[in-house]
Amino acid sequence: MKPAAFEYHRARSVAGAVGLLTELGDDAKVVAGGQSLVAMMNFRLARPEHLVDITHIDGLSGIRREGDTLRIGALTTHRAVEKAELGDFGVLSRAMRWVGHLPIRTRGTVGGSIAHADATAEWCLLAVLLEARIVAEGPAGRREIPAGEFFLGPFTTALEPDELIVELVFPRPAPRAALTEYADRKGDFALVAAAVDLDADRVVLGGVGPTPVSADCPSSGTSHSRPPVSWADAVAGSLELRDEPGISAHYRRGLVRTLVERACEEASCGC
Per the database record, which ranges form the FAD-binding PCMH-type domain (predicted)? Predict the structure, then answer.
């Protein structure tokens, strides 16, 4: 299928993009890698009257370490993160293997994934898990939105229509963190995803609610200890799940239990 007719606008600066979004209002959508939006447009699930292309804006891509903080530009591709040597932020690069297929990782962007706000998307889970801040710029300037407050519902965020995501800020290292997921076929959307940070005693789940779901777990003790097996049982047992077409609550709960166990194992060895 082909998308409905739209008007194309190319922004050359963040200020220019914000100006276009302010002028065009709710009828405009930002496009970068296009891996989510363009597909939705082709199926007529999204019909923006205007597209604001931000791919030619300098300074919105790249990965920068500042002490214990990691900054990732909104136009940084999944593939760039996958190939990066991130040290004690290595969970970010390791998690990229779950993002679609190579062409998607090569074109898709970090900011685009966050803005799309799919509750099973890897970047959404990682942002909540590691307490990232989403930096957005609008007519009033820049503001930072905690990831835990950014995702409001299915494909819905706290971003204003005239704001543009410019950067993600990860405030602390996560040397013992991991993400894993399950899909019916490799590269498909995940049915369930689980991300864990053993040092923060946190689990974040995708596919069990309209947004990433956080769960605090009993302390795993010292930095060299492994989490109790009860983590997986406790998290799976705490969820309120319903049968849905194609997947029962019982099956989804079992996936949660298995994936939390796997993520804990991976986080323990940092592999």
Answer: 1-175
